[in-house]
Structure formats: structure tokens, C-alpha cells
Recover the amino acids of this structure.
């Protein structure tokens, strides 16, 4: 004979029942297990100056990411720029664009260049670079974010540099908007002028400076 399973409804709820249910709801909620997607997939590159190799051979892909969580995991895992040896670079570029003048998306492009004094390495370098990364992954340039290819930080004894690279040095509207927003985000005082130069001019420069196509 089958034994009936008797479920009593009169048993009082376990005092922890509600707490348990809340925890289960939280654990099961997509918010807790779905990472927050970024609009673009990004690739972080590292350059180490080994004079026995060509410039391109010194460039290495570190990792790619396309979520907020993976961005922070990578950022927290790597050295701060101020701890790198002179001659090293980090580059963050949209997936599919190589961080070099020769890439099809950079060939007719240029960069907003921030040049830092030696003293600024301590005060500004790491926070300027983090702000630059956040401008990129957060698509801070509104309708003109499509023009952004990536950003580069050059750690150099003579003075560090940070730049945002855009795809077309003739896209005046995009370039001026990006320059204005970028300067604001970094908190660069209005009286300090930053310049935009084409890669073609940078690659063929003869002296120590390249002429500005735009200023902000
Ligand atoms: P750099 O690393 O951008 O600046 O360029 P750095 O070291 O401050 O030197 P400076 O010339 O700006 O004072 C240094 C050199 O690296 C360039 O002169 C090129 O020989 C080489 N180089 C830099 N970039 C960004 C590229 C690139 O995109 N393609 C190639 N082929 N060489 C590059």
C-alpha cells in the first residue's frame, strides 16, 4: 500500500525563511551574474623598447575585454604607468585597429596630444591615463565617439605623453568636439592649450615638434 505523504500546513515559517528567499532571489537575479557590456570591444597593448628589435616587433597585445568588470579586472592587474620603465607604452585601441600609424583606420588620422612635464609624472600621469581610458570605454564623445581609434601613453624620461587617436584629421567637427570634452574631463585649465596633429606630420617631422592642425 502506498504511504501518503502528509504535508502539514500548520508548521510555522522558519524565522530565516524570508532572508533565505531574498538571498536566493539576489543570487538568481541576472544583475549578479551578467557582466555589464561595453559599447565596443577593446584591446590593451604594451610596448617595450628593445633596441635590437623593430618598432613593430616590440608591440605586444596584452588582452581584450568588452565588459565593465573585465576592464577593471585588467586595469587592477597591471602596473600603473608611473611604475613602467622609460621607453614603455600602453595603448588601448578598439578591437581590430592596431595601435600604429599604418593601420587603415589610423593612416589618415591624428592625435590630441597631452605633453606632461617631468613633475607631472607623480601628480597627474596615472589619473590622466585612467581618465583617458574611462573616456574611451565610456564613449564620452557623444556622436563623435566613432571617430576615436584608441589612446596611447608614452612613458619617457624627457617627459611623458598621453594621446587620443582619431581616424580622420579632416573631420573638424569630431576632432574639435573630442578635444573640448577631453580637455574638460582631464581638468586641463582653459589657458593651457593642447594640440591635434596628423600622424602623417608626426611620422615625417624633422624637428622636435609637429605643427598643430587644431588646438583646444
Ligand atoms: P614615439 O614612441 O611615438 O615617441 O616614437 P618618442 O619615443 O617620444 O619619440 P619622439 O620621436 O616623439 O620624440 C618614437 C619612434 O617610434 C618614431 O620615431 C618611430 O620610429 C617609431 N614609431 C612610433 N609610432 C607610433 C610608430 C608607428 O605607429 N609605426 C611605426 N612604424 N613606427 C612608429
Amino acid at each position: 500500500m502506498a504511504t501518503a505523504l502528509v504535508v502539514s500546513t500548520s508548521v510555522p515559517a522558519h524565522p530565516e525563511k524570508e532572508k533565505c528567499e531574498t538571498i536566493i532571489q539576489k543570487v538568481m537575479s541576472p544583475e549578479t551574474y551578467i557582466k555589464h557590456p561595453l559599447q565596443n570591444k577593446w584591446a590593451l597593448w604594451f610596448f617595450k623598447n628593445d633596441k635590437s628589435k623593430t618598432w613593430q616587433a616590440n608591440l605586444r597585445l596584452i588582452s581584450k575585454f568588452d565588459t565593465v568588470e573585465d576592464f577593471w579586472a585588467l586595469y587592477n592587474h597591471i602596473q600603473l604607468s608611473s611604475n613602467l620603465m622609460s621607453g614603455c607604452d600602453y595603448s588601448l585601441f578598439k578591437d581590430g585597429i592596431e595601435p600604429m600609424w599604418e593601420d587603415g583606420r589610423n593612416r589618415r588620422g591624428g592625435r590630441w596630444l597631452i605633453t606632461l612635464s617631468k613633475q607631472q609624472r607623480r601628480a597627474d600621469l596615472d589619473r590622466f591615463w585612467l581618465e583617458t581610458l574611462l573616456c574611451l570605454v565610456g564613449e564620452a564623445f557623444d556622436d563623435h565617439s566613432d571617430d576615436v581609434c584608441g589612446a596611447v601613453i608614452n612613458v619617457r624620461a624627457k617627459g611623458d605623453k598621453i594621446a587620443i587617436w582619431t581616424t580622420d584629421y579632416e573631420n573638424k567637427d569630431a576632432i574639435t568636439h573630442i578635444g573640448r570634452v577631453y580637455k574638460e574631463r582631464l581638468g586641463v585649465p582653459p589657458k593651457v592649450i593642447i594640440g591635434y596633429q596628423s600622424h602623417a606630420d608626426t611620422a615625417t617631422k624633422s624637428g622636435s615638434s609637429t605643427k598643430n592642425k587644431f588646438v583646444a
Notes: The helical segments are 17-28, 30-33, 68-77, 120-137, 172-186, 199-204. The domain at 36-215 is CATH 3.30.760.10 (RNA Cap, Translation Initiation Factor Eif4e). The chain has six helices and eight strands. The beta strands are 37-47, 59-67, 89-94, 110-115, 148-154, 161-166, 195-198, 214-215.
